Amino acid sequence: MKSFLFRFCVVLAVLVLVNLLSSFLFFRVDLTQDGRYTLSEATENLLANLDDDVHVNVYLTGKLPAGFKRLETSIRETLNEFQARSGKTLTFRFIDPTANPDAKQRAEQQTQLIQKGLAPTSLNFTAEGNQRTEQLIFPWAIVSYQGREQPVLLLRGNRSNSSEEQLNQSIENVEYELASAIRRLTIKEKKVLGVAVSYTTIEPLRLSDLLATLNEFYDIKLINLQESRDLVGLDGLIVPKPDRAFSEADKYKIDQFVVNGGKALFFVDGLKIDSVGREGTYAQPLDLNLNDLFFRWGIRVNNDIIKDLSCAMIPLNVGDMGDKPNVQMLPWRFFPLVNTFGKSPIVRNLDAIYTRFTSTLDTVQAVGIAKTPLLMTSQYTKILKAPALVSYNEARQQPDPRTYNNGVQMIACLLEGRFQSLYANRILPGDPRAAAFKAQGESTKILVCSDGDLLINDINYRTNAPYPLGYERFSRNTFANKDFVVNAVNYLLDDNGIIAARTKQVTLRPLDRIRMKEDRLPWQLLNLLGPVVLVGFVGVIWQFTRRRKYA
Prior knowledge:
11 helices; Glutaredoxin; Rossmann fold; 27% strand; globular; ABC_transp_unknown; 4-stranded mixed beta sheet; 8-stranded mixed beta sheet; alpha+beta
């Protein structure tokens, strides 16, 4: 009896000690091979420093197909990790907007979600019994903080992939999407992002969607380079579609901004195209007076234009049908659809990107500069040197794939390292700029894209309202242009590195469907009867041992 009491007291003391320690020490162990439950360091820091309550409502729940149920489980597991790392500052709830039995109330609830920008997705799938089922889901969440809300799209992926791969990409993006929304709401001090508008004739309305999105993360300032003494005070600079040559003075400002650690994104064209007619116009070389600066940094924008068999469609009148024009959607090779990406968190799991009149990029040797290709064309390309004829009638011609043999072409590149000034050994001691001049400075990052139209949104001229960036009004598809630019800016300027969460990779391990169908019954019997037989076998052994011991 004393021995039993002693063991009981020891066990009780150990349990009390473990509970006391657990109130002071916290740890969780991720035993998965791909680290799917491990949050990035930046996300953990974000959650640990929350100064007020954050609440998340998730609307992707209910009776879902197996693949979406897996996505729901991943969201729930991620939010559990968020809650644990935030010290209970973050709370969440799953709400099924289709569960209300009252049809009128259900419709009102769904209308409210749509008015908040939560567009539903219609699913068509085969349920059990080979019945074709159509279901409306809301793959969204709403993050709330101090009376403000931020919608989060949880279903993201490249639409050219299979549905299973898209769902897997969505699972990989869950942490980044939720953490990015929390950062957007809780950010206190915004970095300053300049937009150089003095060398472009693009009207501000055509940059409005991108700037409105970036304004949630950064303090946006429109910069007139000619009137600015320097670029001191800016953390980043965007140069959107310049169409005339930079002066040497303004080029020097950009050079010193980069050498001193400033981040810059250049969206520039290699050719100038004024307007395109049915018979065509000749695209001429565009001299921006930036070639020597880019060359010093290790990149070159070529004076050419890409034709790609993977391209967007345009409406074209191919003839008359009676007294009415016959307008058809035809592929126009001058508008490549980019769906080949490099290895970078900027472009991981992105959908296709819509480009127009794109030139090629080449890399050249630059000491200490690492270059990462980001956007590439398909392998079926044709390169036209300037002057290049650009004609709408080209869409009516049947292309010969054998002539599209220039292979994959790079159109966006990330440069990282310590950049050397173009003006090294040029600034004389008596020059007024000599005191502040730097020949080589801090490590920084630059992005160069050879398509100035990539970050420009179209306009609905009937309402004079901007379309979302990446929206193609003829096919009514929204491409990933805005995601690409926002990811790039975040990668360059976000010192916390939340975008590192986009590097998470969850391995897709599909089952063999043929073997599933053939061997379904044996595996079902094993899963149903196996545990029962195992428990019974252990019970028999236990009873046999007891009888033999105490007989």
